[in-house]
Every structure is written in C-alpha cells, then in structure tokens.
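Ticket #4471: structure output looks truncated?

Reporter: J.K.
Steps to reproduce: submitted the chain below (143 residues) through the standard prediction queue, then opened the result file.
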Amino acid sequence: MTVLTILNQKGREVVTIAPDCTVQNAAETLTKNRIGSVVVSAGEGSIDGILSERDIVGAIARDGQEVLASPVSKIMTTPVRTCTMEDTVEVLMTIMTGRRFRHLPVEEDGRLCGIVSIGDVVKQRIAEAEMIAKAMQEYIATG
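Returned output as attached by the reporter:
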C-alpha cells in the first residue's frame, strides 16, 4: 500500500498557517481542528516548515509563555521531511519511527498535496493484516 492509497481514503485537505502567524494562533488552530501538527506555508503550496504540539510545548518549556506571541517561523521545524505519493506504508513506518515524526507532509512536484499521520499508517497496517488473515481463513476453509 502507498501514500496515494491513504490519501484516497482520508482526503487531501491540509491545514496550513503562515510563517508570521503567532504561536498562540497556531495552538488555537491545532485545537480547533483537533490535529497534532500544522504545515507552515507562505502560500502557493510551499512547505516552509511544520509545527507540532511538541514544538510548542518545547518552546514554552525553554522560553516561557512569551513565546506564544512569537511568529511560528521562530520555532517551526525545518527542513521538513516529506514523502511522496509512491512511498509505501513500510517506508513511512521506517521514517516515522526512526525520526520520531508523527506527521509527514506529502509533496508532489514541489508542492504540498496532503499529509499523513502515524494514525493513518497504523490504520492502513491493521487493514492489511486483516485482509491477509481473511484470505488465509478462506484458503484454509476451502482447502
């Protein structure tokens, strides 16, 4: 299974914010949308950074609550590790577990076209395992 399969099931909508958005506004965006990260984009599908709940908590721990008034460009993660439509679930698992990422923006022709979370990957792996188990049960039942 590939990223394309995941995006075809979940959709390609991605919440983005501008680099000059405040950390406070970013936290409100995460909460309102019930998401764990947001892509930072100056527009036109660019991927300028990514900001996660972990980034915000770390910044507050280091710099105090004053960081909430700062632009997200000061604390966002860059460069951003992305994936492509052709990447497999196995590739995503390797990247996400090895680098401790919970979200990977999907890039096509240099533009943002989706985002995949660790939850999406786990859901896909479970679906694959269930499909294999069902096929084995049917094989045994007819054998």
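Triage note (M.O.): checked the attachment and the full token line is present. The chain has one domain: 3-142.
Status: closed, working as intended.
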